[in-house]
TrEMBL record, chain A:
This is Histidinol-phosphatase. It comes from the Bacteria. GO terms for molecular function: 5'-3' DNA exonuclease activity; 5'-3' RNA exonuclease activity. InterPro entries: PHP_domain, Pol/His_phosphatase_N, Pol/histidinol_Pase-like, TAT_signal. SUPFAM superfamilies: PHP domain-like. Residues 1-32 are annotated as: Disordered. PROSITE patterns: TAT. The lineage of its organism: Bacteria, Bacillati, Actinomycetota, Actinomycetes, Propionibacteriales. Residues 108-183 form the Polymerase/histidinol phosphatase N-terminal domain.
Length: 588, 207
């Protein structure tokens, strides 16, 4: 079933022997981006029929008899689309580095809403206390950017966060916001705590939030504003207004509006700041079946393309696969195409908690949109005397976890662990521990997740996956079983020519281990052969309940995550973990 | 009962396209409804993405037989002037289409008319056969009775003649390479449902 739906709009399917010299090249901001190259050629009467392909001739004939050919002047509107595409930042060519071994694994969630969001419910302490109880070590409060939040919310939430830090001594609570990325989706932006955390976030939001600045639609100027925002954050770190800042894109494939070139541009605008995207979105209760849940789309990934969507994305990209975003779930897909460039880009998993499944509280009477707009926050929740099975979210830590390997249990170490890609994610507590290393055979030195092993060309290399199976029941009160572990390997080819590519043709699943019945801590070792060309490996695991051949076919991924079923996607019966990659770089 | 409409090629039809800068499908379909009302007869109505420029949006196109009795073209002309929309009206065999409106929106209307004439893209809102596409149907019934050329499931899921599709009384097939394609996705109960469901989560609003 190796199907591929390439971008219909961007196909350049010229007929055989098509040799006229008129440039049909068009980038993604061409003024006539709706019409494909064959149609543009058919419309251009300065090209004689003899220079057209058969397809183009037949289109011209059709357009002529429909009485539509003579109006092409309408397409040449000056100014429209003439603005240059947002300049692609150059970025460093290859950003490899050694990773340090983590001293401690800290689980967290960088995407959490409160009563400071226009669609939120909870106090900060409600979210933080549940997160801690459900086993998280760190969390980021990310209320939506917007006019009210920029005016007052970003300040009002800070005392709540500080109070929660005092109350929960062992929990690291960051302040951030959910940025409406200009021309794109949402993303988490957060900073290290400090005396200027609010000041910097507020200035960022007022200057660069897509909603605050009416910059949501997909235009080159708005794309540039997003890059400016990322670079501005980097400058605040350079100037020590804040000690650190990070940006990760949220639910990237949900509406098809994060085009591949935008993601590459964010990364390259400042790779210290823009470090990754959600491999798995929140709202994981959205697909629970009728009777116990909302019976909608898992992750609330239920939309069709809009005018702002990247036209090359297939319909499949708008849905989750085994609860994961299509960009991450597709072996050889968009995420791999980023990794194949040899640049860091990491995945995380979060709750996106707004209102949680089976909630019994509600907003009090009188706490409505007008009250929110006036006061910058909803009033504290009250007991609601009922249960809400239609809410689509889980508490932070209840289902999704991002495990970060840190040197110490502190704020800056968590941020550095995230930046270094020492990170794996799981659903439903599928595994207790996952450690991945790559080393030269016979050597002690190894590289952890996110690292790059530099090894003499021709030396044998091996991958070691150390799994500790789950001993504790998860929050649905069963002990999940890790029944399969897969290794994915891809060649590192360097920067791509077409920044809208979302395929990595040299990436595939290279090993599947049946791990059913294994208990405790065990090692899986995979010889990777002699190091000749640069490559990366990453690891994925599953309870094995739901699989289908991957989006790019069984030869690439024989048993990938299955397309989630609308209204019948019980997240507890379809569990996966994903690790970030490790690179292997042969030297002379 | 003839279920398929007479197969007029687009070249024999009148195409009326309007770009009123609709932000989403709800707005674009509202515009179609406003222009068409409950107009009877053979009508094909589409929405088209206009992606160029600083604000991607949607245009609409309506294809009708040249002898259509009502004054749709006149109505569109008046409406477009009143709303400062772009309009493109084609006549079979004419040397050029009739274009009007602000240049930015004329462009979108013209592109929509081209897409409509070629059948290369666009999203169908009204089309001959749509009236039969209600309730649960087999893929064969959708093809035989409802003006659909092809039913295609996401993720490579197989679609056989007797595969059941719950239309949810809302189908918006797309045009691709001259074919009318209905994309479907798996849903609870082992049926397939249309990929595009009626109520979309508004982009960039909440969540």
């Amino acid at each position: 079933m190796g199907h591929s739906h390439d971008g219909h709009t961007h196909d350049h399917e010229h007929g055989a022997g098509h040799g006229h010299g008129h440039g049909h090249d068009h980038d993604h901001h061409h003024p006539n981006t709706e019409l494909d190259a064959a149609t543009i050629a058919a419309l251009d009467e300065s090209i004689p029929d003899s220079d057209l392909s058969p397809t183009e001739v037949s289109r011209r004939t059709l357009l002529r008899s429909a009485g539509i050919l003579g109006g092409t002047a309408a397409l040449a509107v000056s100014g429209v689309g003439a603005a240059a595409a947002a300049a692609a930042p150059k970025g460093d060519s290859i950003l490899f580095k050694h990773g340090n071994k983590p001293q401690v694994w800290l689980a967290g969630d960088h995407h959490i809403h409160t009563q400071l969001s226009s669609d939120g419910l909870y106090r900060v302490i409600d979210q933080a206390r549940h997160a801690a109880a459900f086993g998280l070590d760190w969390l980021v409060i990310t209320d939506h950017g917007g006019a009210t939040h920029a005016r007052i919310g970003v300040e009002l939430v800070n005392p709540q966060i500080k109070a929660a830090r005092t109350e929960l001594k062992n929990t690291l609570i960051f302040q951030g916001l959910e940025w409406n990325i200009p021309a794109a989706e949402h993303g988490t932006v957060f900073v290290a705590p400090g005396s200027r955390e609010v000041e910097v976030l507020k200035q960022f939001e007022n200057s660069y939030d897509g909603s605050v600045n009416n910059a949501s639609s997909n235009s080159p100027a708005n794309e540039q504003l997003a890059l400016d925002g990322i670079q501005w954050l980097g400058q605040q770190v350079d100037r020590r207004r804040v000690q650190d800042a990070l940006f990760l894109a949220n639910h990237p494939a949900r509406n098809g509006v994060d085009s591949p070139h935008e993601i590459r541009n964010w990364r390259d605008a400042n790779p210290r700041i823009a470090i990754g995207f959600e491999g798995a979105p929140g709202h994981q209760a959205g697909g629970l079946p009728k009777g116990i849940g909302a019976a909608g789309a898992r992750g609330l990934y239920g939309n069709a393309p809009s005018a702002n969507s990247f036209p090359g994305y297939p319909a499949e990209s708008y849905r989750t696969w085994g609860g994961f975003d299509w960009m991450t779930a597709t072996v050889g897909g968009l995420w791999d195409s980023l990794l194949a460039e040899g640049k860091p880009w990491w995945v995380s998993a979060n709750s996106d908690s707004h209102v949680n499944w089976n909630e019994t509280s509600r907003r009090p009477d009188g706490s409505d949109q007008a009250q929110f707009d006036r006061d910058g926050r909803y009033m504290d929740p009250v007991y609601g005397n009922t249960v809400n099975p239609l809410a689509t979210d889980f508490w932070p830590g209840f289902y999704s976890r991002t495990h970060v390997g840190a040197e110490r249990r502190d704020y800056l170490s968590v941020m550095e662990g995230l930046r270094s890609g020492r990170m794996w994610v799981d659903h439903g507590m599928l595994a207790k521990g996952v450690e991945v290393e790559v080393r030269e055979v016979g050597r002690k030195h190894s590289e952890p997740l996110g690292g790059a092993l530099v090894v003499r060309r021709g030396r044998p290399v091996e991958l070691v996956v150390r799994i500790t199976t789950q001993t504790m029941p998860n929050w649905a009160n069963f002990v999940p079983l890790l029944n399969r572990v897969d290794v994915i390997r891809g060649a590192v080819k360097g920067a791509v020519g077409d920044r809208d590519t979302f395929k990595a043709p040299d990436t595939k699943v290279v090993r599947q281990w049946d791990t059913s019945g294994k208990r405790g801590t065990f090692e899986l070792t995979l010889p990777l052969g002699k190091a000749e060309e640069p490559y990366y490996v990453r690891v994925r695991g599953s309870d094995g309940n739901r699989s289908q051949p991957g989006y790019l076919g069984a030869a690439i991924d024989p048993q990938g995550p299955a397309l989630d079923v609308v209204g019948d996607a019980d997240p507890w019966t379809d569990l996966w973990f994903y690790t970030n990659p490790i690179w292997v770089l042969p030297s002379k | 009962m003839v279920l398929h409409e007479p197969d007029l090629g687009p070249a024999e039809q009148v195409i009326i396209a309007v770009d009123a800068d609709s932000r989403d499908t709800v707005e674009a379909e509202h515009l179609l409804h406003e222009l068409l009302g409950s107009m009877a007869g053979s009508v094909v109505a589409c929405t088209h993405v206009v992606a160029a420029g600083d604000r991607p949006h949607l245009a609409i196109s309506v294809t009708v037989p040249p002898d259509s009795p009502d004054g749709l073209a006149a109505r569109v002309r008046a409406w477009s002037v009143e709303r400062s929309a772009g309009a493109a009206i084609t006549r079979p065999g004419a040397s050029e289409p009739e274009l009007s409106g602000p240049s930015r929106l004329v462009r979108g209307a013209y592109a929509a008319a081209v897409e409509s004439a070629l059948g290369t893209s666009g999203r169908l809102v009204r089309f001959p056969g749509a009236e039969h596409a209600t309730g649960v149907l087999t893929a064969a019934e959708l093809r035989d009775r409802c003006g659909i050329d092809q039913v295609e499931a996401l993720g490579g899921l197989p679609v056989e003649d007797d595969t059941l599709i719950d239309t949810l009384d809302f189908i918006r097939p797309i045009r691709r390479d001259g074919q009318v394609v209905l994309l479907v996705q798996p849903a609870a109960g082992g049926v397939l449902i249309p990929f595009e469901v009626e109520h979309q989560q508004k982009c960039c609003a909440d969540h």
